[in-house]
Design goal:
alpha/beta
Length: about 450
Amino acid sequence: MAMATSSLGRICQKLRHCGIITYSQIRAPIRYSKRCLGAAPPPIPRESVAPKFTDDRPKFPGSKTSRWSDKVEFVHPEQFDGIPVYRVMDRAGNIMNSSEDPKLSKDTVIKMYKNMTMLNTMDRILYESQRQGRISFYMTNYGEEATHIGSAAALNDKDLVFGQYREAGVLFWRNFTLDQFMDQCYGTREDAAYGRQMPVHYGSKDLHFVTISSTLATQMPQASGAAYAYKRAQNGLCVICYFGEGAASEGDAHAAFNFAATLDCPVIFFCRNNGYAISTPTSDQYRGDGIASRGTGYGMSAVRVDGNDVFAVYNVTKEARKLCVSQNRPILIEAMTYRLGHHSTSDDSTAYRSVDEVNYWDKQDHPIARLRHYIVNQGWWDEGKDKAWMKEARKEVMEAFGRAEKRKKPNPEYLFTDVYKELPTHLEKQMNEMKNHVSKYKEHYPLDTFERWKE
């Protein structure tokens, strides 16, 4: 130990001569080394004067607590009432509080109704198409139409949308055409992704709608990052991120909420709480008061809305967007709704809920029926107009359906493109192997339904 101390002293002296440390700084490590050798520590003063505090409130950096407690007090969820559900229309289509009426024009409201019913019509035809083996997969939007249309109508059409996979109505509102929907689901040569995505995985750069990913919640941290970029660009736009209450259980949701709140990102997190995630009821999904209650824990403002009331959804989204853009901060919206259909064509919802339950929501609180009641009450719609429109909607969907079925599939070479700017050697080799294999066993491949590749 003596040798070690002596060596330490020589090192310190050299550092002092080099001007790196001062003499007073040398003394501290020497005193410390002596203490290590067993020297007695400096005596503790027997008399000390207690400091005087002018403000004795908690000042810990990790919380906003402003008072002490001299008792053990746990915070229990039963102490708090549930967050109220905001709505504008009752189930009969009557405005409950005139001051909350968004006073949208007749043309806008009729567009809302037509978009919602057109989406419903397309869902029915494409669902049956999958059941007949014409397409591989589909997801309906039954019962959640108001969450799409009400929110989309309140946004700027240049606001960036990150969807989960049940937001086709947002694209309808932004004039994504029936042909584009059909081409994507059928994977035709006109599909923007050349058939490389599963059905219902829509995307549109022109309409500022980021292409859907199958993996749950991956869009959420991406949305926070995009919103941060928008904040830095100061472009007056915001980001909206749709997700389900099941996705809120993913770790990506936590990351997204925390990043957005701490970085003050202009993003609207729009949760469609439809009760069942993929196949898990909310009673098994979480114990707290839904998803909106998590907002304040992350430092975000939050609101809960009747997702079957298109006007209520419109109002909260419009207000949320205003706060996002003007104050650069995230907002959490929880839209309470009900998924009437199966999660997807791979699901059988009768395994986890009763048919009677589904029928109740279909008959008693359908978002399309509620809006229909409103426009009829306003004198803008009647049974004759409704029948004529439903007939026209089905005709338009079936015509687009027919066109998509006749179109050829994309050139198989597209399997290998759009990853690298220049096709690398190993992918070119794989492509040639594919061509040789398919050509050799062409009786097993429907080549006549695909565009021909270059020889």
